Amino acid sequence: MNIKIKTQNVHLYYGDFHALKDISVGMYEKAVTALIGPSGCGKSTFLRLFNRMNDLIDNVKITGEITIDQKNIYQIKQSHIDNLRRNVGMVFQKPNPFPKTIFENVAYGLRVNGINQEKVISDQVELSLRQAALWEEVKDKLKKSAFELSGGQQQRLCIARALAVEPSILLMDEPASALDPISTAKIEELIFELKKDYTILIVTHNMQQAGRISDYTGFFLNGELIEFDETKTIFTNPKNNKTESYITGRFG
Ligand SMILES: Nc1ncnc2c1ncn2[C@@H]1O[C@H](COP(=O)(O)OP(=O)(O)OP(=O)(O)O)[C@@H](O)[C@H]1O
Ligand SMILES: [Mg+2]
Question: Which ligand minimizes its atom distance to the CA of 219?
Fold first, then answer.
């Protein structure tokens, strides 16, 4: 498998606070990588490196090298950051649909990208909703407000919205933590399907979930990446005793 995303000696500071410490890791294309670790250890911060969302926060300093497809994403022109964000979709913990119709939520990114043929848009909306395993539930109410959907449906809508602009990477920050077990199972099945086409990084606090859905797992503690390996190794035979303590529930 190819390495899609790579960090080399990455440090991130929020002002004086050293939030990511010397992170060097390669993450594989078309695989699911889970990021685990106690609250505040830097998982979301790490995820936000790859769509340069940390740039939007004041007083952030980042050093080291971060590449996607061998390109340093911190050495691109300002005008190419929009392309980067198109290529790197993100889904958050709480579903955050726009106050628009179901259809327009998914069409939004296409319109922003200057696509204006209605047929192209409606085909892509349908495809994205199908990929997000939501089409059957919403096909008869596309003109209804997104807020009329359940939480689990709203989250799948947000996934469809992210997929519509055809990214190659999907960042998911605890995408199922606010959902019931049935919706969670749907999101997990969906992630399994999506990894055929996408490189997925997912933050989760749920060890069973990480074990079920990911191929690789990184364990973070206090801003350090303590261990990164195949998921089955992390969960059955971790090399670092801090990893072992965490996954067996002794802290965090
Ligand atoms: N915008 C910010 N400004 C200053 N400090 C921040 C900011 N965002 C995060 N931090 C700090 O950086 C550290 C890592 O935060 P981060 O949100 O990445 O943790 P996390 O592992 O995602 O935690 P959780 O599991 O609770 O979501 C924390 O100590 C946090 O307080
Ligand atoms: Mg977080």
Answer: 1
Question: What is 3-93+168-247's CATH number?
Answer: 3.40.50.300
C-alpha 8 – ligand 1 centre gap (Å):
21
40 lines ligand 1 (CB under 6 A): yes
Spatial contact of 80 and 48, defined as CB atoms under 8 Å apart: no
Edge-to-edge strand ranges of the sheet holding 60-68: 17-28, 3-14, 60-68, 71-72
Q: What is the pLDDT of residues 99-108, one digit of tens each?
A: 999 999 999 9
- pLDDT given for residue 78 in this prediction: 87
Question: Which pTM does this prediction carry?
Answer: 0.94
Give CA–CA dist 157/106, Å, rounded.
7
Give the helix/strand (H/E) hosting 20.
Answer: strand 17-28
User: Taking a C-beta distance cutoff of 8 angstroms, is the pair 14, 59 a contact?
Assistant: yes
Please say whether the beta carbons of 194 and 166 come within 8 A: no
